[in-house]
């Protein structure tokens, strides 16, 4: 997880601490003042700007900070095995939507005085067509305000969500040659580049520099230029498979299948172990036959299972109190055992191993049992690195394969390296915890260097000491997930984690027109060292090293105007470089052009409410490191909404109330959901759960992030259809069933009347479960799916996620929830009498408390 904070070129490179928020007169803090706890990570942000652009040469540093906790990702999954669903997914090229078309040809304005040159150069595509869009890149607005003072209102902000590995169908055009890059700033040629067809020279849209194309862009007419994918599409993939990757193979084979090593806690009581065994058996049945698997158990010792024994579960045992020494590892590696084996040769042995597991026998509390998790992961890394049994079979291990370690943990790491004392009351606990955290972070970095991702899946009732284990998953690029038990949800996530293909050596570069300044980046990345990427003499790109490249990771990028913009367009170029699972080097180039406007209403009309809400939510959650911080963020959200109304709308005549801009009327309700939901509200009780949720959200894709902010509500109708309704408590009608998707949890609520009819309720429940599975089929981590009846104790989990709109006057209820008009008078009265009074305000009550008139529903 990274949070990049830029500094102005003429300011100190150290970002000041955020101002405190007074409870009496709170003030909204601008996003570029936010700073986190880890000063050691500073991102490379080359800023040797061209003197021709009016900016003096120099360098400005920027700040990268990381909230505690691992990056947790979503991942592509599809049904594959019973009883769980999974998918062999790889990062695929992203394509334009079927409705996308080529952008307009209006020549860009260059701020370095090259207007005369610009007028001589035709752009590659000149027909008046819409500006390019990409499913990988979602802007909070489709236009940019020209005037700095209007644009840089921190309460609303402007930014983009970048999903580097997002898959779309059909895929982008693939180019198997080197791209043309600007010699000055390093930007790539694209469909907005102005081109001299006689000489083949092209003009960079970022810096205005004129570049050669080695004669490649010489053409008789502009139409010929359309044959170049990069000059006709906003998204292209350049692929190199030659000298740099001589081991490239076009199809999957056993030698390139990423190994998966299971590291399993053996200190489990019998009920937990039985659930875990069921999940493990289903897991191995779901794996492709070419997947290589390793199995390691850990307690006070580390047991490495040998697949060469076909009729018995046999393991080498290593002491867990210290890191394994070279002699121990050498004896293991050069012995006769086989510790990584393809599934087609080892499935029966794996089932035998899982069936042989036994529950913990000693009379020791769960939290006090010795677990050498750190040593077990070290051994797993050694097995993956080799030498392994593959060498004895004459198979050369290929470099750069992305491996995965999946830890199945039921308690904290309390023995050996990276461990903490059994009890929080230990006199030296704070120091031990700090040392353990650093050791785990180091181990995660070592795994990342070996192209190995460590996922940690926890389950059970024993606290796992989340702050200690999170750095291991985070720094390796893996996921950290908490479960209630080792049952169905754990099994689904075990499968989805293991097949979640990841690209390696990922680098994200962002270049913008000189008018735009990047102020903050939040996402699963860290500092990009200077030797990790090419540099150009005036390269002002922001460079981020990605910990892994997975389909639904997301970076949240906040931007602002450096000054008033004079040009008609601004340009953004996003470049993702990574090696895919076939070891081909991919360079994905996405170029977006946005028009500039001087009309505030026109700008507001272009805002994407949901994208803006997710960007605001990620900036807000970044500051919610503890429960008390989360409560403080309520005031920040209140002030944000008030400031947007003040800056972008007008006061109601003869009243102290302000209107909220009608163009973004959906935004305040989304932020109200954020304010009272599990991310900032009091729905989640334990701080470990809140920490994991927070870090999942900060790295999650747009789709999952939106659902975590605001739940999606669907009411079951006769015939198995569903009607989407606002997430209000008015949906709790006794003769219906409702599905509520809140990202990490999906609830199925059955009304009492419906539940009384066995046949109808069974059909409705089956339809609701099918819908819930379809909604979450591609989601990682897989959510809990909980079903309960009206009036049950569990129903409170469902009710707490809904806005209490029953407190509003009837006319407002009908305006915001039109479905009420279909109810009879008797049904309305029965619904009204079913609600229990509590103090939580409705949306309308909350927004009126801010002196704002509730916006009209869309």
From TrEMBL:
Purpose of the protein: Component of the coat protein complex II (COPII) which promotes the formation of transport vesicles from the endoplasmic reticulum (ER). The coat has two main functions, the physical deformation of the endoplasmic reticulum membrane into vesicles and the selection of cargo molecules.
Pfam families: Sec23_BS, Sec23_helical, Sec23_trunk, zf-Sec23_Sec24
CDD domains named among the record's database cross-references: trunk_domain
Region (Disordered): 1-113
Record flagged with keyword Protein transport: yes
Protein location: Cytoplasmic vesicle, COPII-coated vesicle membrane; Endoplasmic reticulum membrane
Keyword Magnesium found: no
Native source organism of the sequence: Hibiscus sabdariffa
Domain Sec23/Sec24 trunk: 261-487
Main location: membrane
Name of the protein in its database record: Protein transport protein SEC23
Compositionally biased intervals (Low complexity): 96-108
